[in-house]
Amino acid sequence: MKIYFGIDQLKKRLNSPALTIGNFDGVHLGHQALFKKVVELASERGAHSVALTFDPHPLQVLRPDNPPKLISTFEQKIEQIERAGIDILICLPFTMELAATTATDFVEHILVEALRIKDLVVGYDYALGKGREGNIDFLKKKGGELGFRTHVVPAVVIDGMIVSSTNVRKLVSEGEMRKVAKLLGRYYQIRGIVQKGMQRGGPVVGFPTANLRINSEDLCPKPGVYVVQAIYDTHCYGGVVNIGVNPTFGDQELRAEVHIFDFNRDIYGHPLKVNLIQRIRDEKCFSGPEELRVQIHKDVEQAKMILAQEEGLEMACQHS
To answer: What percent of the chain has pLDDT over 70?
Structure first.
């Protein structure tokens, strides 16, 4: 997949591509349905399949005091869009100037004049331009005038719930990782660089951990202990993670402490990916290291039982 940061980076004009446009935060099954339709339409005509997105997320610019917690990093978004089979990803810098662009100008100057689209694929509730004036009726009308077809993909519904970034965020904040996985089509993943912690995991408690800092802008799952799959250097390992502040030792910083099974390597300063599979308990304050050690031993045994029954773990690792 080729990636362009701005339309001016395109080395040559596109030839009647099929295109979808959106923020694609999380690249959930609803987004994947859009990409599938784009790929199908492009393949029928031997054209390029194109996704147009924005960075930063528009609401980070429009609502800087209350921006949304993002489901995925920009890196994760790129990976998932490429996995969907899209040929070209165009990322437009989102600015207040772009936000003020009318729907007519956006369609005429960007989609038609610059990108020369033939097929436009949008979701059932999509709208673009200043004040979201460019709704589906508008897009169909402009398409008829300017020579492109507008295709509307219906909502994807899983277990009675519409697949949306809003619903994914809600479920993540509730710790409902099984339901989140259904909406994403994969496990929810957190990533980070392994930090030096307080050095208590191995020497004091008996369970060494890899510590990841959780930033305030990150979408943080509900605090507690989760069964996980840890991915390091293309290898997958089972594990458990405590997400929280570790109240037993009176800590204050929110972080993820990952105990990786059958793993004994120094990975400080290295990247780690963690797939959250299932939440198994709340974070608790214990009387001391011994009581905590006993509980973690129980957590590990429960996690290993869950992992042994989990289907498709290897496939999930290959796609993480």
So the answer is: 93
